[in-house]
Design a protein that fits this description.
The structure holds 2 protein chains of 2 kinds. In chain A, about 0% of the residues lie in helices and about 55% in strands. Chain A has no helices and 11 strands. Chain B is built from no helices and 11 strands. The chains are: A mainly beta, B mainly beta.
Amino acid sequence: QKEVEQNSGPLSVPEGAIASLNCTYSDRGSQSFFWYRQYSGKSPELIMFIYSNGDKEDGRFTAQLNKASQYVSLLIRDSQPSDSATYLCAALTLGSNYQLIWGAGTKLIIKP
Amino acid sequence: DADVTQTPRNRITKTGKRIMLECSQTKGHDRMYWYRQDPGLGLQLIYYSFDVKDINKGEISDGYSVSRQAQAKFSLSLESAIPNQTALYFCATSDLGLAGANVLTFGAGSRLTVL
């Protein structure tokens, strides 16, 4: 069974601090990884994706991938109350007909 | 107008009733998906379609059926709704290409309650 695991949280972070969200995956064949943000009652929206080992930065967001450890993370710098949401991690494996395997999400709360 | 439109946004129905959730998109994407989301759980794929003539079952297709009426339209049906189908349903689209194939654009969701 291919799995993507996330701590459900909630993760509470003070405003202005760095929020660190983690995700592990079981299938070593997974090649690309996606982070989506979902506000309560709303639909998921893509933040960023990563497929190479190392870091990928986009504004206040940095995705980190370590394929040897099967670990993906999302760092949010200078956290704002508007970052409070559930963050979904998803993995793509070519053998799965390009379908995503989703984690259950981590609820992030940014405290003013 | 939204790129991916779902109707109805909310529906309350009774056990045994037939329900259709509709999805239309203006993104011009070939790939369309139906997902289900339950509280505390990740998104579960019900059905997906890579083009009008290609429809595939996802991980939880039992009790559901779909119709791809056109490139822009993808409908989900519950032939005989049951209470454990109470959930939030999302339609999504994506474009071709390795990474692009999974950059999903979601509709606003359809909240279904089966009594």
